[in-house]
Every structure is written in C-alpha cells, then in structure tokens.
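Lecture notes, part 5. Sequence design as translation. It can be helpful to think of inverse folding as translation between two languages: the language of shapes and the language of residues. The source text, in structure tokens, appears below.
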C-alpha cells in the first residue's frame, strides 16, 4: 500500500459516521471490560444485569430485558448463570404470577466495589487526555446522544 493510499484511508477514517464510531467504541469497551472481569467469572452482560439491579433494586426479568434491550430468552440464560453463582435470586411477583422478580443476594456485595472500581478505570481510560471540564462536557454530550436515540426507539 502506498503512502498516498494510507493517507487517504486515514482521512476517510477521520470522517467516519457517528454511528460507526459509537459502535467501534462500544466494541472496544466490551472487549476491555470482558478481559478485565474474566478473573471474576463474569461477562459484560452479566455485569450489566448486576449493575441494573444494584442501581434500581429488585425488578422483573421483563423489565431487565427491556432496560438492556435484550430478548427475553438470552437474558433468561444470563439470569440462570447469575442465580447458579448465587449472585442473584428469583421469586414470583406477588402481583403477577407470570412474572419473576430478580434481586441481588448478599454474596455479590464483596464484588460490587471491585466492579465499581473497574468501571471507573475504564471511564478514566476513555477520557485520558481530556481535562476535567472536557470529560464532564463529553459525558453531558453522551447523555444527550443517549436520550436522542432512546426517543427514536
């Protein structure tokens, strides 16, 4: 590949669509996260379920699936694995016998601090080279993008 071809390719990469850039960043974060939580015996999807329950408390599997934009069958397998590990527990919803409620167990407590630290480390890696003000503005803009796209779904 010639120097001119490489320069042209780099120029095209700088002008890539926002959706492509967001997708690539998401994949990089997932890869980094999965590599770092592997020793804990977790995947990123399992962490997302645990974090959702940590932040929002007990909820139905359907609510978790909706929040994570996952189909119910694959989420059910994730929940099965988390329950087998003893990190979550399920029980019938008293107001709807068809629904299963999911909650964290005390067994997850020691791991939560490590996971929070890991999420913070990834965030710091992503914003390395930004001033505190730039990082705050970046986060504000990401939340705006999130809200914009959420309203489209």
């Amino acid at each position: 590949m010639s120097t001119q071809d490489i320069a042209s390719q780099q120029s095209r990469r700088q002008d890539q669509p926002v959706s492509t850039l967001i997708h690539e960043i998401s994949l990089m974060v997932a890869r980094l996260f999965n590599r770092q939580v592997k020793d804990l015996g977790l995947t990123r999807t399992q962490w997302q379920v645990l974090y959702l329950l940590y932040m929002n408390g007990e909820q139905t599997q359907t609510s978790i699936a909706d929040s994570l934009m996952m189909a119910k069958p694959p989420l059910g397998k994730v929940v099965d694995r988390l329950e087998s590990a003893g990190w979550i527990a399920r029980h019938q919803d008293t107001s709807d016998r068809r629904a299963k409620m999911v909650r964290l167990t005390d067994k997850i407590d020691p791991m939560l601090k490590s996971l929070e630290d890991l999420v913070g480390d990834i965030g710091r890696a992503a914003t390395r080279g930004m001033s505190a003000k730039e990082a705050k503005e970046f986060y504000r803009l990401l939340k705006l993008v999130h809200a914009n796209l959420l309203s489209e779904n």
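The translated text above is only one of many valid answers, since several sequences can fold into similar shapes. The helical segments are 3-14, 18-37, 44-56, 61-68, 72-84, 109-126, 132-152.
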